[in-house]
């Protein structure tokens, strides 16, 4: 017989909430849905280089050809051969190299190679305060004969070397700077006068004109020094002069040392009063000797500066006169004649800035150029033609032209020549 219990076989009822009543349990709100996933970023476009086929290596070919190989070999990077273009040399090595260059650069046949090595030292930054004296010795050896720099076979090499050396002039002392300026006139400016470029030629002429204008007026002492130098050169050779020049500073320094150390014994009266030199131990004697030594050194320094200024001025005048002579020898080229005319006239107008012998040479050059001007205008040149340049042609043409009533030139000044102007 079936059981009369209606709830037989059903699960027990759920427990009611603590604060709830007897009714149905309150339902909680459903949980929020999960957020939508972010969209995946777009793939980057493939590079063109990645689409290229890689060059098959020999190992890959062997792998594909032999299927029995276990695994392909790893990619081996290609080897590259690189050469070092600079060498880190020590200061001692640089000095030895400079000394070797200086021993060969005086030879004209070896100058081209030696000058290139010297320029490479400048480009490599090897010319420093510690090596500047040795580099100056290279330039001094190169200019041992100032006329050698104007030979056709080495003109360009001299020009390049001294152009490059102008970048390290701030390391020179004042005496070296003065000497370098003289060398630039010989090796750079004078060589520019041999050019075939009218612009370079005119630029060189302008530099020489500025240098002439900067010269001081020659004095009687300059003329006397020149005459004395010529007289000494006629009696003694250059070797003897060089020896005396080198021995004079040494003798002067020895005399200064003797005066400073034996100031008390310099006068015969003091020798008799103090035969043992005890007065030299006194303080006032020491101060007196120090002041005398300082005065002697200052006097020698002033004398050395004056001699250096005279030597620089003399060398500068000689270099400028040499440039004038080189330009005068190129007067036969038509396109150089106008610039040389102006250059020679400028030197003639400033002839007082040169010494007596140089003044005579400048006057002769100017007279020669003036004579050639007259011959050209008269048609008596070597070629037999009317050899006038463009400036002289236009000067001759417009010197006979007449100005018309309407301020125009043409047709000899007749009214018919200007009627078409309206």
TrEMBL record:
Q: Where is the composition biased (Low complexity)?
A: 56-72
Q: Where is this region: Disordered?
A: 1-85, 233-278
User: Compositional bias (Pro residues) at which positions?
Assistant: 28-44
List the PANTHER family: F7O18.3 PROTEIN
* Protein name from the UniProt record: Uncharacterized protein
From what organism does this protein derive? Sorghum bicolor
């Amino acid at each position: 017989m079936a059981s009369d219990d209606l709830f037989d076989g059903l699960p027990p009822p759920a427990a009611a909430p603590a604060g709830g009543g007897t009714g149905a349990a309150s339902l909680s709100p459903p949980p929020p849905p999960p957020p939508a996933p972010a969209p995946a970023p777009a793939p980057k476009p493939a590079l063109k280089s990645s689409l290229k086929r890689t060059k098959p290596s020999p190992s890959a070919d062997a792998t594909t050809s032999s299927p029995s190989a276990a695994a392909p070999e790893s990619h081996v990077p290609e080897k590259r051969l690189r050469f070092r273009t600079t060498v880190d040399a020590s200061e001692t090595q640089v000095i030895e190299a400079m000394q070797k260059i200086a021993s060969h650069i005086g030879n004209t046949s070896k100058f081209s190679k030696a000058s290139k090595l010297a320029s490479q030292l400048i480009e490599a930054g090897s010319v420093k305060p510690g090596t500047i004296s040795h580099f100056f010795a290279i330039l001094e050896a190169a200019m041992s004969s100032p006329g050698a720099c104007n030979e056709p076979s080495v003109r360009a090499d001299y020009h390049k070397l001294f152009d490059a050396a102008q970048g390290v002039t701030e390391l020179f002392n004042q005496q070296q700077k003065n000497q370098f300026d003289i060398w630039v006139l010989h090796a750079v400016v004078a060589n520019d006068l041999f050019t075939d470029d009218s612009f370079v030629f005119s630029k060189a002429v302008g530099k020489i004109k500025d240098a002439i204008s900067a010269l001081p007026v020659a004095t009687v002492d300059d003329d006397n020094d020149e005459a004395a130098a010529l007289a000494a050169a006629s009696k003694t050779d250059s070797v003897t002069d060089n020896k005396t020049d080198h021995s004079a500073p040494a003798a002067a320094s020895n005399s200064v040392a003797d005066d400073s150390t034996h100031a008390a014994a310099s006068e015969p009266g003091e020798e008799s009063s103090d035969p043992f030199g005890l007065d030299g131990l006194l303080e006032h004697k020491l101060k007196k000797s120090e002041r005398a030594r300082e005065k002697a050194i200052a006097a020698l320094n002033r004398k050395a500066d004056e001699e250096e200024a005279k030597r620089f001025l003399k060398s500068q005048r000689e270099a400028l006169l040499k440039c004038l002579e080189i330009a005068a020898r190129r007067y036969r080229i038509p396109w150089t004649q106008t610039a040389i005319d102006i250059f020679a006239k400028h030197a003639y107008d400033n002839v007082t800035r040169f010494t007596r012998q140089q003044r005579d040479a400048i006057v002769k050059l100017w007279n020669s150029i003036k004579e050639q001007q007259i011959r050209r205008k008269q048609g008596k040149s070597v070629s037999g033609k009317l050899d006038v340049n463009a400036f002289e042609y236009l000067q001759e043409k417009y010197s006979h032209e007449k100005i018309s009533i309407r301020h125009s030139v043409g047709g000899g000044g007749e009214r018919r020549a200007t009627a078409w102007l309206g």
